[in-house]
TrEMBL record:
Its EC number is 3.1.3.48. This is protein-tyrosine-phosphatase. Pfam families: CpsB_CapC. It comes from the Bacteria. It is an enzyme of class 3 (hydrolase). GO terms for molecular function: manganese ion binding; protein tyrosine phosphatase activity. It catalyses: O-phospho-L-tyrosyl-[protein] + H2O = L-tyrosyl-[protein] + phosphate.
Length: 246
């Protein structure tokens, strides 16, 4: 492991597979706080291609009070984007799932066996919580998703205020069997220094299963490029990330 840091740059690129699949972004036009229109969607997709990506799984927000997206809305927009990408003749695979906010509305859907948009062969479901406070029913949601045949993926744990100063709690959540997904821009200090420090520690502790761009706008593409120059990005390339299986 430590010998990695003494390899030449071209050896790193040869020995470690690049990250070519992104599983957290907001690229579908006009349905959340991501791309506003098809022009912006295509601009972002082209930027991903220039960064070596081959597969994008975009995940619009599902938040009952703000973004009342349904599988029908998301899949209809996905079809429009695929058509636009095909018209460009671009060689990139575009899929869609969703980023679900864990709140009482999500819990109600879960209790009523409402199907969720998942991705991957293992039916991964991307979930997030409010940034300031952990929902009291988070553990229950994780257990019920697992019992329903889904594999919950915990979006950007490093960004939650309730975890930034409580690594013990982060480990407790990790040990429930939920998969951790770190935002790549976090490693470049895009959000804040405390968030960067927690993201780095999660990498150091091998507590990262997926990485995602969480791309909403071009500024996130710029942050993604900065991340590639960090030592913790290089550490990620040594890890068996599940992105490679997508």
């Amino acid at each position: 492991m430590f010998s990695f840091f003494f390899r030449k740059k071209n050896e790193v690129e040869t020995l470690n597979p690049p990250i070519t699949a992104d599983m957290h972004s907001h690229l579908l036009p006009g349905i959340d706080d991501g791309a506003a229109n098809m022009e912006e969607t295509l601009q972002l997709i082209e930027a991903f291609m220039q960064n070596g990506y081959k597969h994008l799984i975009t995940t619009p927000h599902v938040i009952d009070d703000f973004y009342k997206n349904t599988p029908e809305i998301i899949l209809r927009k996905l079809a429009e984007v695929r058509q636009a990408v095909a018209a460009k003749g671009w060689d990139i695979k575009i899929d869609a799932a969703a980023e679900y906010l864990i709140d009482e509305f999500f819990l109600e859907k879960l209790n009523n066996n409402v199907p969720f948009l998942s991705f991957g062969a293992n039916k991964y479901v991307l979930i997030e919580t409010p940034f300031m406070n952990e929902p009291m029913y988070l553990k229950d949601v994780i257990f019920k998703l697992q019992s329903a045949g889904y594999w919950p993926v915990f979006a950007h744990p490093e960004r939650y205020t309730y975890l930034c100063n409580d690594f013990k709690r982060a480990k407790e959540i990790f040990n429930t069997g939920v998969l951790f997904q770190v935002n790549l821009p976090s490693l470049a200090g895009y959000y804040s220094r405390p968030i960067q420090q927690l993201a780095e520690r999660l990498v150091d502790e091998n507590m990262v299963h997926f990485v995602g761009s969480d791309c909403h706008k071009m500024k996130h593409i710029d942050a993604l490029e900065q991340t590639k120059r960090t030592k913790h990005y290089k550490k990620l390339l040594e890890m068996p990330l599940l992105n490679h299986s997508l």
